[in-house]
Amino acid sequence: MKAFVVEHYGKDGVRAAHVPEPEVGDGDVLVKVSAASINPLDMMVRNGEFKRLLKYRTPFVLGHDVAGVVTRVGSAVRDFQVGDEVYARPRDLRIGTFAAYIAIDQEDVAPKPASLTLQEAAAVPLVSLAAWQALVDRAHTQPGQKVLVHAGSGGLGSTVIQLAKHLGADVVVDYTKEDFAEVLSGYDVVLDSRGGENLERSLTVLKPGGQAIGVSGPPDPGFAKQLGAPKFMGVVMGLLSRKIRKQARKLGVSYSFLFMQANGGQLRELASLYDAGHLRPLIDKMFPFDQTLEALAYVEQGRANGKVIITLD
């Protein structure tokens, strides 16, 4: 089958290739890919930014988001059958949605939202899971709380804004002005996707006890623990985020790094929010499968205002 694989780490490391169809384990569903979407994580994995923690063996198929049709199920699969339309963010070390087929653990899969097309459904697994895990699991967002979201026009930011509003957050702002740290204060949660100085300034708008959640880093010891990495990697992650965590402590707030996890159960809950109209995907552009490299370049240039979809059907 045709796929786009990381042949070697680096910006020029992805190429089109013919690879064997995936083997289907007892707990897997084989999905014929109708559409996939591109995330900044694809470029980070391609560039080898997590290679000490996520030990992919090159060549491997890239891609973290998928929607498609089940064509085969493993012997232990009970909740899915051939013909089901599903969506998923496959777990780490089992990614590979830039391909004609992918075998996915049944725990990572959910029926796609009925109100979305397969192409629309492919836009949402990673960003909706990240939004849910940030606002619900990590921040425990309550009605009336104030949430600040940076880069709110992107796929993740727009989803976080919609979910925060659904959860009853009182003020949800996408503040792009340089002086946001001077004019904003008293926030309960900041979701930062920019890192660096933007993250440092974000700490100052939080009220005591507030949380800054970073999705672009720096990683913290909890990330190494989440991935089951050796203890020394936890020490390394601690060093990488020591400065920002120390700044947060001085201000009486906290910083944590969020690396979203595959979760089919949460995707079922999120599907109901899409079908009820509380969430809508924000799509910038669609590329045919043969133009996957062009689609990656388009996203990397920062031109996308929403999600970029790769279509196979």
Task: Describe the fold and architecture.
The chain has 313 residues and is α/β, with parallel strands linked by helices. The chain folds into two domains: 2-123 and 281-311, Quinone Oxidoreductase, Chain A, domain 1 (Alpha-Beta Complex); 126-257, NAD(P)-binding Rossmann-like Domain (Rossmann fold), CATH 3.40.50.720. The protein is built from eleven helices and 15 strands. Strand 11 (187-192), helix 6 and strand 12 form a beta-alpha-beta unit. The longest helix is centred in the middle third of the chain and has 14 residues, at 125-138. The protein is globular and about 55 Å long. The two termini are 15 Å apart.
What labels describe this entry?
five-stranded parallel beta sheet; alpha/beta; Quinone Oxidoreductase, Chain A, domain 1; seven-stranded mixed beta sheet; 313 residues
- Helical content (DSSP H or I, runs of 4+): 25-40%
- Strand share of the residues? 25-35%
- Annotation field: number of helices: 11
Q: Can you tell me the CATH class of the largest domain?
A: Alpha Beta
Tell me the CATH superfamily of the largest domain: Medium-chain alcohol dehydrogenases, catalytic domain
Model regions low in confidence, pLDDT < 50 over at least 5 residues:
none
Distance between the first and last residues' Cα: 15 Å
Radius of gyration over C-alpha positions, nearest whole angstrom = 19 Å
User: In sequence order, what are the helices and strands, one letter per element?
Assistant: EEEHEEEEEHHEHEHEHEHHHEHEHE
Mean pLDDT: 93
CATH topology of the largest domain: Quinone Oxidoreductase, Chain A, domain 1
